[in-house]
Amino acid sequence: MKGEAMRDRAVFFDLDDTLYDFGVCNQAAEEASVAYLREQLGYQGDRRAYHKSIYRYMDAIQERLGSDNLACHSRTLRNAMFLEEEGYPASPHAGRLEEIYWEVTFRYLAPEPGIIGLLKELKKAGIYVGIGTNLTAFPQYQKIARLGLSDLISQIIPSELAGFEKPSAGFFAYCAKEADVDPKDCVFIGDNFLHDVTGSRALGMKGVLYAPDRRSMSEEVTEQVARERIPVIRDYRDPMVLELLEIS
């Protein structure tokens, strides 16, 4: 029963760009969104212009409502803001654009090389495996299911459930509480240095950066990783990963 005896350790993973390639899915989904805009409304912009607008509205929502307010993740809201600024009706197109985005994203999902094998090793070792992710519950649960990882995950914790967004200490404290583990006995693996590594380390967790070869690290991050000896995973298939996670 939770609270009676804490677990020895737990391993948390971020989801987007940690368990699958977000860039591939996002590009395909945005291209499909722009195709819809052109066909239905005569939109003349390209994917880059659309992408820039959608993320600008995300920043605007966070600035107005606060960084822990989940409204920033609503693609319906962000698309509505985009449509209104472009002079198009928000209804019914904002909702349809969100549907298209997730339909295409789910279609392009593919697990990162080696992640299924690693999760199986963690499960075999009896280690609690959690997903700690900034987003609402529906798409993140769908991603885990469609990636074929449901049976290998102990719990999914979206920021919608935690009530905080990474890198807030409240998010990581909630993860540790749900896992029944002391933060110092928890590993958090993710691709975002600020959100996943800095945030988890601030609470006493062992933050590990996932940085596959396809993704370059900034000079600042590279220097900090070296200076603070922060563990970096380049490939989940590397045998050193099992040693890093203390799995024999």
Walkthrough of the structure:
The protein has helices spanning 22-41, 47-65, 75-86, 93-108, 115-124, 137-146, 159-162, 169-179, 193-202, 219-228, 240-244, and strands spanning 10-13, 128-133, 155-158, 186-190, 206-210, 232-233. It is α/β, with parallel strands linked by helices and 248 residues long. The chain has a 6-stranded parallel β-sheet, with helices on both faces. Helix 1 runs antiparallel to helix 4 and helix 2 crosses helix 3. The two termini are 27 Å apart. The mean pLDDT is 94.
Q: Topology of this protein?
A:
Layout: E1 10-13, H1 22-41, H2 47-65, H3 75-86, H4 93-108, H5 115-124, E2 128-133, H6 137-146, E3 155-158, H7 159-162, H8 169-179, E4 186-190, H9 193-202, E5 206-210, H10 219-228, E6 232-233, H11 240-244
Parallel strand pairs: 1-2, 1-4, 2-3, 4-5, 5-6
Helix pairs in contact: 1-4, 2-3, 3-4
Key terms for this structure?
2 domains, Rossmann fold, 6-stranded parallel β-sheet, single chain, 248 residues, DNA polymerase, domain 1, alpha/beta
The SSE string, one letter per element, is EHHHHHEHEHHEHEHEH
Unreliable stretches covering 5 or more consecutive residues: none
Largest sheet: 6 strands, parallel
The strands making up the biggest β-sheet line up spatially as 3-2-1-4-5-6
Q: Please state the second-level CATH architecture of the largest domain.
A: 3-Layer(aba) Sandwich
Number of helices: 11
Helical residues, percent: 40-55%
In the CATH hierarchy, what is the class of the largest domain? Alpha Beta
Indicate the structural class.
alpha/beta
Q: Quick one: how many beta strands? A: 6
Q: At the fourth CATH level, what is the homologous superfamily of the largest domain?
A: HAD superfamily/HAD-like
Query: What's the Cα radius of gyration?
Result: 19 Å
Determine the mean pLDDT.
94
Strand content: 5-15%
